Amino acid sequence: MKDNEKVAIVTGAARGIGLEITRQLLSMGMTVVAVDLRQDLLDALPAALGESAGKLQCRALDVTDSAGVTAMIDEVAEKHGHLDVLVNNAGITRDGLLLRMEDADWELVLKVNLSSAFFGIRSAAKHMIRQRSGSIINMSSYSGLEGNRGQANYSASKAGLLGLTKTTAKELAGKNVRCNAVAPGFIKTEMTDVLPQQAKDIALELIPLKRFGLPCDIANAVAFLASEASGYITGQVLSVDGGMHT
Ligand code: NAD
Description:
The chain has 246 residues and is an alpha/beta fold. The chain has a single domain, classed as Rossmann fold, CATH 3.40.50. Helix content is 48%, strand content 15%. The chain has nine helices and seven strands. It has helices at residues 16-27, 39-49, 66-80, 103-131, 142-146, 152-172, 190-193, 197-205, 215-226; strands at residues 7-11, 31-36, 56-60, 85-88, 134-139, 177-184, 237-240. Strand 2 (31-36), helix 2 (39-49) and strand 3 form a beta-alpha-beta unit. Helix 1 crosses helix 9 (215-226), helix 3 (66-80) runs parallel beside helix 4 (103-131) and helix 4 (103-131) packs parallel to helix 6. The longest helix has 29 residues, at 103-131. The chain binds ligand 1. Ligand 1 binds at residues 11-12, 14-18, 36-38, 41, 62-64, 89-92, 112, 139, 141, 184, 186-187, 189-192.
């Protein structure tokens, strides 16, 4: 399938990294279904994307709703006759030191960041196996590779995504369905804007390339993994972090 004929679903697409991924995939000519919890942000998406929004479709959905995710994926695949790319990007943080972390914060982060990807993959895989092609991309994190103080829940969810990625890759490779993960470092978005300046200064010191990443840095990596150019790559974790994880 040519890249400009592909149909992609991107979760957490209404702002930040997901918005840039949506922009990139649209610029490659793909039809993109932008999924997000926030209807208000989705309403603003066509204007934010300008001329490239032609093949954009928006869908308000909480990705922790297993039945809702399945129904959405089936509907997209049936409407277009195929589903070629799934980007599991939706994610949240509920930071706090391990000893004080509430059960609710542990469970919510695991559900939004990890369980949602499982729901999406399980549903998308049925369609991709049938058509004998597909690319699934999971948004992990440097925190999932290395751990991070104050992020026991988040790091565990992002490390879990790596196991899910590798298992999915092994189970589906025989059907020409690929699954890879991207592990961003510190990227300038609203998720990281809220961090105290001192935490940002410490983070910058750790980055060999001496700058924070931009959402487009991550979108470029996702676009590659979604494209035919990466057709022989599966089960991999692509760090996009200015050289922190080597
Ligand atoms: P962001 O908070 O700016 O955007 C996340 C989007 O996901 C929002 O639009 C939000 O509405 C949506 N979302 C949240 N919960 C949802 C749910 N239950 N259902 C549907 N949509 C939901 O975050 P970002 O910085 O753009 O991060 C995107 C992804 O990249 C996340 O998975 C995040 O963990 C990962 N990541 C970010 C960084 C960083 O430095 N920003 C670093 C590593 C990994």
